[in-house]
Amino acid sequence: MKVVFHVDELGKLSEARHNIQNLLAADKNAAITLVVNGEAIQGYLLPAQLEFMKDCPTVSYLACNNAMKAHHIKKEDLAKEIEVVPAGVMALVRLQHEGYAYIKP
């Protein structure tokens, strides 16, 4: 199973974390990607998100460079587990084209 979670609202990041944990509990082999853009990009700096990434190392984490620029976040500010992509929407299109189910909490 391949699933991409898309979060663009900071307040929805916690819900996405819970959804991802529930999915992993049901299918520990699920391929999961979390794409964060918009104001939610700030969530990649929060302690709760950093702890989540340690607890869920099999999840792929993508950050939108456009959102980072808009919120004055540099690649060096992010955890090493996070891959910066030029545009979050393009990553979403690519992943869905590759067969990922799209979930937006």
From TrEMBL:
Pfam families membership: DsrE (PF02635)
Name recorded for this polypeptide: Sulfur reduction protein DsrE
Organism: Candidatus Enterococcus ferrettii
InterPro entries documented for this protein: DsrEFH-like (IPR027396), Sulphur_relay_DsrE/F-like (IPR003787)
Superkingdom classification of source: Bacteria
